């Protein structure tokens, strides 16, 4: 909806009562809502896939939680084929308190030994 408001404020969407213009505005707003919904659904789906991959690659740590390292996730061929942006998916999962790791941003090479812990099922 924010995108539509930008277009409306900038004058790129018509302000007339013409039926074609109203139809165009309604179609545009619907497209924005559908696009935002699809983006949300893809993130949730990718987080779910991440949980499955952590289970596959990880092992129980001293606390009994499944854990793996960022390097193992990053260098795994299957993960490379599934995730377009592994770091973004990890950040989304961390925001939802599904995984835990030290730091804000994980970089390949530098953070390969950082432990990624699965906190709960998704």
Automatic annotation (TrEMBL):
One of its Pfam families is Costars
Q: Which residues form the Costars domain?
A: 41-119
Q: Which residues form a coiled coil?
A: none
Q: Which GO terms describe its biological process?
A: regulation of actin filament-based process
Q: Which domain of life is it from?
A: Eukaryota
- Show the InterPro entries listed in the entry: Costars, Costars_dom, Costars_sf
PANTHER family per the record? Answer: COSTARS FAMILY PROTEIN ABRACL
Family the entry assigns: Belongs to the costars family.
Protein name, please? Costars domain-containing protein
Q: Which organism is it from?
A: Owenia fusiformis
């Amino acid at each position: 909806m924010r995108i539509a408001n930008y277009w409306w404020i900038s004058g790129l969407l018509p302000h007339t009562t013409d039926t074609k213009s109203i139809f165009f505005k309604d179609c545009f707003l619907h497209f924005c809502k559908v696009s935002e919904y699809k983006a949300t659904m893809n993130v949730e789906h990718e987080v779910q896939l991440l949980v499955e991959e952590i289970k596959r690659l990880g092992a129980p740590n001293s606390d009994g939680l499944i854990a793996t390292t960022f390097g193992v996730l990053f260098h795994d061929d299957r993960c490379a084929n599934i995730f377009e942006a592994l770091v973004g998916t990890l950040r989304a999962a961390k925001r939802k308190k599904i995984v835990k790791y030290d730091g804000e941003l994980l970089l390949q090479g530098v953070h390969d030994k950082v432990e990624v812990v699965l906190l709960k099922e998704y």
